[in-house]
């Protein structure tokens, strides 16, 4: 499936967020690079006008991480955060380091690998292996699935 045809990406694009003010994080970059097609949502880190647009669409609340604020849109398909996970780069650094894929800003896979390795959740082990394989790296401590 073409990236811009994915239902979550279409919803994201329908928000008309300025690309200089957001970045897709979480598992979204795996979708952008064709490593996964089955993401459960798109996590977006936003600032400035992109954050203002999010706030016009829904009320902000504290995310499960307890870090910052989030806005949930399209029944949970899109989650927009004003900052990313504890220990991650700040919002400006994340957005400035974005890689455009079909004009959409995504976090670099190396950043995603760093977060997922640090969190070491069971659900992230598959993604860690996929990213390492894509980048041509060994996945220490991750079983081949």
Radius of gyration: 15 Å
Q: Helix count?
A: 6
Class based on secondary structure composition and strand pairing: alpha+beta
Beta strands, count: 6
Provide the residue-averaged pLDDT.
91
Strand proportion, as a percent range, falls in 15-25%
What is the H/E order? HEHEHEEHEEHH
Spans of at least 5 consecutive residues whose pLDDT stays below 50 are: 139-145
The end-to-end distance, rounded to whole angstroms, is 24 Å
Shape: globular
Fraction of residues in helices?
25-40%
Spatial strand order of the main sheet? 1-2-4-3
* Most strands sheet: 4 strands, mixed
How many structural domains can be distinguished in the coordinates? 1
Produce a short descriptive summary:
This protein has about 140 residues and is an alpha+beta fold. It has six helices and six strands; from the N terminus they run αβαβαββαββαα. It has one domain (about 5-105).
Written overview of the protein:
The chain has 145 residues and is an alpha+beta fold. It has one domain. It is 35% helix and 16% strand. The chain has six helices and six strands. The protein has a four-stranded mixed sheet. A two-stranded antiparallel ribbon has the order 5-6. A hairpin with a 4-residue loop joins strand 3 and strand 4. Helix 5 (109-119) packs antiparallel against helix 6. Mean pLDDT is 91; it is low at 139-145.
Helix-strand layout with pairing:
Blueprint lengths: L6 H8 L7 E4 L2 H5 L9 E5 L1 H10 L12 E4 L4 E4 L9 H6 L2 E3 L2 E3 L2 H11 L5 H11 L10
Parallel strand pairs: 2-4
Antiparallel strand pairs: 1-2, 3-4, 5-6
Helix pairs in contact: 5-6
């Amino acid at each position: 499936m073409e990236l811009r045809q994915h239902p979550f990406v279409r919803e994201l694009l329908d928000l008309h967020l300025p690309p200089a003010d957001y970045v897709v994080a979480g598992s979204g970059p795996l979708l952008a690079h064709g490593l996964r097609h089955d993401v459960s949502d798109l996590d977006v880190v936003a600032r400035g006008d992109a954050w203002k647009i999010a706030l016009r669409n829904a009320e902000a609340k504290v995310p499960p991480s307890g870090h910052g604020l989030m806005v949930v849109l399209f029944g949970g398909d899109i989650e927009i955060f004003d900052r990313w996970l504890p220990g991650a780069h700040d919002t400006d650094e994340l957005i400035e380091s974005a890689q455009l894929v079909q004009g959409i800003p995504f976090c670099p896979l190396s950043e995603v690998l760093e977060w997922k390795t640090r969190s070491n959740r069971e659900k992230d082990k598959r993604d860690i292996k996929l990213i390492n394989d894509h980048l041509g790296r060994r996945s220490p401590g991750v079983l081949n699935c």
